[in-house]
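ok so dumb question maybe but i'm new to this and my supervisor (M.) told me to 'just get the structure for ABC transporter permease' and walked off. so i did the thing. is this what she meant?? sequence i used:
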Amino acid sequence: MATILAYSFLKDGYLTVIREFTLENYLSVWSDPIFHKVMARSLVVAALVTLVTVALAFPVAYFLSFVVAPERKSLWLFLITIPFWTSYLIRVFLWKVILGYNGVINSGLKSLGIIEQPLTFILYNVNSMVITLAHAYAPFAILPIFIALEKIDRSFLEAGRDLGENRLMTFWRVTLPLAMPGVVAASLIVFIPTIGDYVTPALIGGGKIPMIANLIQAQMLDLDNRPLGSALAVSAMIIVAVVSVIFLFLNRRFLKVKQ
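this is what came out, is it supposed to look like this??
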């Protein structure tokens, strides 16, 4: 981290780094409309992935906490971690096979006579990236929400029903607010690695929808401009840090409400 920070204040030379202090890298980054567009896209994609992942993870975590028998919860948690047995890169390639023009989905729909031509909107776009990333980071969202739900005193739920609330209103007024620290933590855990992902945009996005990590990779490797790439990396980290602080503030607020 210190090296990246130091490089961001140096000048770029031909296949070398000139050790002279400068702010030109940051001026170039923050005045570049491409950086603005790519950073905004990265934030939007990360937000969509976080929203989809948490929305799908909450029912699973709720099922594990309130429906599954205590002696079977460990087995279910073990099953949730099975995707981590394979490399992240392999899982991305498998999603490319599933969503491809001649992939599992298109081949299945064509064999059933539902479509005549392969669907083009399920690969090499934001939709496919969100699906792939949501699957990749789902366990990271399920576990903190599950822990938050497990900590809820079940007597609170009984008290809500004793006061005349139905199950839906008890969930809305009691369960969900008490589980919000886990939801906020899950959102933060998913959001941070998603915004820095460069494998999925390159493979699933087909390189057509670059995110900030792809821009950093291009500067660092393809163009060999390490100072500018470092400035991009530091700028992205600052933006992510600001978003993280907002998440932490929300988490602290919900913890105060819980207390």
